[in-house]
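Standup, Tuesday
Yesterday: got the pipeline producing structure tokens again.
Today: sanity-check two examples.
Blockers: none.

Example 1:
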Amino acid sequence: MGIGEVGSLEIIRSFEDGYILDGKPEEIFLHKNEATQNFMVGDTVQVFVYRDHQGRIAATMHIPKIRPGVYGWTEVIKVLPERGVFVRTGLTKDLFIGASDLPAHSKVWPMVGDRLYCTMKITNQGNLIGKLATEQIFDAIRVDADERAFNLDIDGIVVRTRKIGTHIFTTEGFYGFVHESERQFEPRLGQMMSGRVIDVKVNGTVNLSLIPRGYEKQDADAQKIWAYIEERNGAMPYSDKSRPEDIYEKFHMSKAAFKRALGHLYKERKIFQVDGWTYDMRLKKEE
């Protein structure tokens, strides 16, 4: 039985630390920590075969959710700059995905906690490495969207990054594309994103936008300004009379968006302005 395979093997010897399995022709080591219970010589166990940290051909009864030819979602647990990332598979030895299988620009590499859809691949040296799912794999597992998906709020994981856009696999199973004009920054591979469906294609895929709707963005801008006012103990040296370049430098928003956000705070009776400054309304009440 070879590396990366699942099968039933007979226990031919037993000792304190584990068991020796008949791998025909090789003997395979099953550590007791990798067994689900105590066994006797002659018992048959179902195992997954891999190469352990010491380079030995070993077995585990904790069958990993991804295997050669079997894809699944895995969590990134370590990032090695310029080299690649490790993902969790359930084995004692984590799975490595090399830089050649990741985006060309490391700024959009996944971070610890992000999730990747991948499988295992056996190298010429007999080691197991991770391999990301291709667009064809996602096309085979995706769910076709229909007109009911239009304007639907979605969550999804980035599965491919490109300069012209981002590919996302949604929690509904839709395969979506985000044009660069419909995102405020380039998301990283494996990142969970929220957006909405702006078009349903004839082939069942969707176009997505990661830019908040107008009223949502206004709320977000207002929250950003309010947080800054609170951070400065209720007063900031910006108002609807401030220069556009000063507003953009500080808040990264246009003056029009800034004024809309101030208007939102006015309606909530949170702020007032005096001589080019904006204040927390509670300061006025304290006078």
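Example 2:
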Amino acid sequence: MEDAFAAYHPAVGFLFFLGAIITGMFFSHPLFLAISLFSSLLYYLLLRGRKGLKFLGGMVLLWAAMAALNAVLVQEGDTVLFTYWGGRVFTREALLYGICAGSIFLSVMLWFSCYNVVMTSDKFICLFGRLIPSLSLLLSMILRLIPNFENKAKTIMGARRCIGMSPDNGEKRERLRHSADILSVLTSWALEGAVVTADSMKSRGYGSGERSNFNIFRRSSRDTVAAGVLLGGLALLLVGVSHGAARAEFYPRITLGEWNGYTLLGALGYAVFLLTPSAIHIGEDVTWRILRSRI
């Protein structure tokens, strides 16, 4: 089933991902960080399903490595858990900060992965085609380059595997040669695609006159409601943050903002904002299953 939130107007999706990524990079308070991490993980699994478990496993390992590395390298913090290597200290503050930093990285990477699924190149051009036509075209080509490269590499490796010339076949030297051949084919394909795209745009008169703009996306009442919910959640979050709800310091000792009504208000607004796409997706899925059961 396709994602229901992806069917909304591109402005709604861009507003959400812009807010999710920016706030995810700067909030290190455990409560707000847990909300961001849970929301990004939930939406990522709803979008990718089992296909995303491999990527998620790699990100979790990287998260664990970042947490451990920060605790090993940073010597700050008042609470010493143990000493090692000639008097170097392993502190609780460095460990917890490493866990939070790794969680921030994991959350932001998951949001970017969701962005690549939901915000396609045509949506980006719809939003910025009139304002920055050349840059929007360039960015849309860059954003779709890596997915296209991955799909093309799978096609090439599948074809070469049938003739026994994939990177998995042969001795070490042969595997390296097969990998180099695949890289050469991918490079040639990318260069040829760039030339074809340039010729195609030139033949259509791109840049020769005033640029027109066409898109298939139209605003509706549901877009207005979704944007209102997102902006309302952001407003509650800003009220809480302005009163120090998201304040967190780790060195020399862990100090968090005072837990009060503003903390709960900011956390509630943050949860409403980040969980909106998942709620829309789950709600559409439940509705579809109910309607299908009645057939």
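Quick observation on example 2: The first strand starts at residue 80 and ends at 84. The mean pLDDT is 83.
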